[in-house]
Amino acid sequence: MQLAELLKEWPCTVKGGSIRVEVTGIEDFAQGVKEGDLFIVRKGRKSDGLKYVDMAIKNGAVGIVIEDEKQLDSLKISVPVIWVPNVLKFMSYGAAKLNRFPADAMQVIAITGTNGKTTVSHFIGQLLKALHKNVIVIGTNGIYINGVEVNIDYEHLTTLQPKHLHKILKIAVSRGVEYVVLEASSMGLAKHRLDDCSIDIGVFLNLAEDHIEDHGSYEKYKAAKQLLATLSDQLVLNGDDSFCRTVGLQAKKKKAYFGLGNRVDYQLQLLAEGLSTSTCCLQSNKGQKVFSIPFVGEHHLQNTIAAITTVSQLGFAIEDICDVVEKLTLPNGRLETIENNLDVDIYIDYAHTEAALRAVLQTLNKTVKRDLIVVFSCGGDRDKHKRIKMGAVASKYADLIYLTTDNPRSEDPELINAQIAAGFSPKQKYEMILDRGKAIETAIRQAKPGDTILIAGKGHETTQTIGSTEIEFSDFESVRLTLQNLLNDHVD
């Protein structure tokens, strides 16, 4: 596509070079620029893209996009300099246009919330697949088409950058995909990554304090979440959550409320709960149905009714949806149980907020036979306010806690853990083992038959960031290695 064609409907000023040059891509990482790309100059947390203009041109950039008008005259380069009011908005638009706006060819569901985005997105994807529709799910755990992970080279973010997102959506169209289900993080929304995605349904799950340092304040965090309402044609909202209710009241759009309480359009009532299943009754103006789901715990009921409501709003019959709900499975790293011969229940879960940790511990507390053991910590360089709260939640349910590391980044992990321990009850038993693999091993080796172990915070993740170094690390692999070593010890 020629630069002139790409820019003709966007406010801009161009200086130098030719507007007839062919543009093949959008890139904001100079090292990743390829021949034919436009290089987007933006300021990051640690660096300014302006420093890398020469590298971008050397790598093949055919134009440089800026939002500082002063650079129009000061940049003396051989390719066009394009000024736009907001480079992030242009990056979204440019990537979408270069890929022929692929989202327009599908129905797009975007999900936001402090907790539950990944689970609800996978639930919706599973329901649509069971209803014989082709669906792509994009989010924290990766990219899946009809439940099969797609191996594509991209930057792994909860909400993908537009330069990757629209390429992937174009691939989805070519594979006959009809529905897109994606996670809309607060940072993704604030940075305009979904501005050109033609979102049919925006789903609001909940709001709790998180990512405050990233946004600057809780109010800005809320405002970022609310952007999804402006981008969506219709809304599905948690009627049990006050923030979601407020979003619904302010938005003059078609909407549907779901929840476990009253004053909702889709209400899920718990009739009976077993060790691993819940029997529920769905009541809505589109029909009623009694069915079972293979989970227990209030948060799983909330996630299930969110998915059912969304698929119903897409036009599917309640009867048909509820007939396949019992086949739902949790995504990787969400209360995932690890089989073993120790008579110990071992679970791995991504819970890294106060609300998520409470929900998981409440669920496990219903089935624990002896002691409940928790291995966790908090991330460094962010959300310091939640550490004492997560400590209090863990201490309320856990008989024994192993404090360890969870991406401490530039912070001292001992200080992070001290802030967590400040929320413990005076009688709480705990031990600090900073080597996360060693903490997991110790918890398993010291556990007695009948104990339950929760390893929380990282879930599906396969890396650990300590200082400025990212190392390979997996909770699953640590558990597997420990179990294998215990087996070898027994054989010896």
From TrEMBL:
Please list the residue ranges annotated as the Mur ligase central domain. 111-310
Q: Enumerate the Gene Ontology biological process terms.
A: cell division; cell wall organization; peptidoglycan biosynthetic process; regulation of cell shape
* A single cellular component GO annotation: cytoplasm
Q: How is it modified after translation?
A: Carboxylation is probably crucial for Mg(2+) binding and, consequently, for the gamma-phosphate positioning of ATP.
Q: Does the keyword Cell wall biogenesis/degradation apply?
A: yes
> Gene3D superfamilies recorded for this chain?
Mur ligase, C-terminal domain, Mur-like, catalytic domain, MurE/MurF, N-terminal domain
Q: Which UniProt keywords apply?
A: ATP-binding, Cell cycle, Cell division, Cell shape, Cell wall biogenesis/degradation, Cytoplasm, Ligase, Magnesium, Nucleotide-binding, Peptidoglycan synthesis
N6-carboxylysine, modified sites: K225
> What's its EC?
6.3.2.13
Where the record annotates domain Mur ligase N-terminal catalytic, the positions are 30-91
Provide the function of this protein.
Catalyzes the addition of meso-diaminopimelic acid to the nucleotide precursor UDP-N-acetylmuramoyl-L-alanyl-D-glutamate (UMAG) in the biosynthesis of bacterial cell-wall peptidoglycan.
HAMAP family, sorted: MurE
Q: What is this protein called?
A: UDP-N-acetylmuramoyl-L-alanyl-D-glutamate--2,6-diaminopimelate ligase
Gene that this polypeptide is encoded by = murE
